[in-house]
Specification:
Structural class: alpha+beta
């Protein structure tokens, strides 16, 4: 059986670790690797898209990162309980015409006993921004540890 630490029940430290690991994974933009954090039968609602299963999650992520170019994400722990975590996040990206966006969202996550995400509910809004208004400038990949958080950026 695959495990994905940290595993529930969560405390502040383990929930914070889980959030940062998720952020790091999504910033890698590696759909295959990221999809392995989800259970085989994971269920998602992402905006108006419903995803059923790990294979659909991988396809969804591959398409997402083809569209959302130069994607950079920051996640922040909002709340946690035994096997659930709530996060808020923002990410910046541009389309193939060079139009920049900052997408704001909230997610509710539920995990199985092995630390795999079984349910993911995401609500997201896209705000068009000018390139000069971007706040996420680190090189593609993992956000540096010394980069400001969403709260520190006033987002």
């Amino acid at each position: 059986m695959q495990t994905r630490p940290p595993i529930p029940p969560f405390d502040f430290v383990s929930a914070s670790q889980k959030v940062r690991l998720a952020e790091d994974g999504w910033n890698s933009r590696n759909a295959s690797a990221v999809s392995n954090a989800y259970s085989v039968n994971t269920q998602w609602r992402n905006r108006a898209t419903f995803v059923e299963g790990r294979e659909q999650a991988e396809r969804f992520l591959s398409e997402k990162w083809k569209k959302e170019i130069d994607y950079r994400l920051i996640k922040e722990l909002w709340a946690y309980s035994d096997n659930r975590i709530a996060v808020r996040y923002a990410y910046e990206w541009h389309d193939d015409s060079g139009n920049w966006f900052r997408s704001y969202g909230n997610e509710n996550w539920e995990f199985d006993e092995n630390g795999l995400m079984t349910n993911r509910y995401a609500s997201i809004n896209d705000l068009p921004i000018q390139e000069k208004d971007r706040k996420f400038h680190w090189p593609l990949g993992r956000r540096p540890d010394d980069h400001p958080s969403l709260s520190e950026l006033g987002l």
